[in-house]
Structures are given as C-alpha cells and as structure tokens.
Amino acid sequence: MRTLRVLKELAALLPRMVRVLRALAADPLVPRPAKVALLALAVYLMSPIDLIPDFIPVIGLADDILLAAVVLDGVLGFVDRSVLLRYWPGSPGALDSTAAIANKIARLVPNRIKNRIFSR
C-alpha cells in the first residue's frame, strides 16, 4: 500500500507540474530530449487511448502517473537545477520532495527504457 500512497501524492502534484513542465518546454536552455519527452507526455496524457483505461478505479490512472513520474524524474535529472528553480512555484525543498516522489515511482521502470526516453 506504500506504492498507492506515493501514487496519490504524485497525483496531487500534477496540476503544479503541468505549469512547470509547460514553462520548461518553452525555455531555450532546456535540452531538446527533455522537450521531446515533455511533448510526448502531454500528448499521451491528453489521448483517450491508455494502456490501462482511466475508468478503472485507482489503477486506471496508474499508467498516466507512472509515465508522468518517469518523465518528471528524467527532466529533474536532465535539466540544470537553476533552470528548474526559475519556474518552480515552491521552495527548493518542495522541488526536492517532488523529485524524491517521482524517483520512487520511476524506479518501477527499467533503466534501459528511461535511458531511451532521454537519449540524445
């Protein structure tokens, strides 16, 4: 049940993340692979087609949250911290907490898949 708690925490952060990720996607200092990953995430989240249909309670959002966590974890590790803090609406400590939550969830995905997402 610990994973469910972490998933709920990340879901609560999603509205804030949308604003931050939109700003990062427009920043010229953000590397292209990170922008491509952000765009792909936005397209997937808006698409009516999911790996797990959203109408299934709790697990229906799991694929969305997992993918968002992987991209967020990758962006947080790939983009310079000063650029991230420019757009982050909270404190640096809140950014670190968000990064920790995303990292916990992203660990469920094999590194080879994550590396393909952010390869140059």
List the helices and strands and how they pair.
Layout: H1 2-26, H2 32-46, H3 62-78, H4 81-87, H5 92-106, H6 111-117
Using the CA coordinates, give the radius of gyration: 14 Å
Please give the number of β-strands.
0
Binned, the helix content reads over 70%
Mean pLDDT: 82
Taken together, the total number of domains comes to 1
Which regions contain 5 or more consecutive residues with pLDDT less than 50?
none
Q: SS-based structural class? A: mainly alpha
Amount of beta strand: under 5%
Shape: globular
Alpha carbon gap, first and last residue: 36 Å
H/E element sequence: HHHHHH
Number of helices: 6
For the sheet with most strands, the description reads:
none
Key features?
mainly alpha; 0% strand; globular; 120 residues; single chain; 6 helices
Q: What does it look like?
A:
This protein has helices spanning 2-26, 32-46, 62-78, 81-87, 92-106, 111-117. The model has no long low-confidence stretch (mean pLDDT 82). It has one domain (2-117). It is built from 6 helices and no strands. It is globular and about 40 Å long.
Short description:
By secondary structure, this protein is an all-alpha fold. It has 6 helices and no strands.
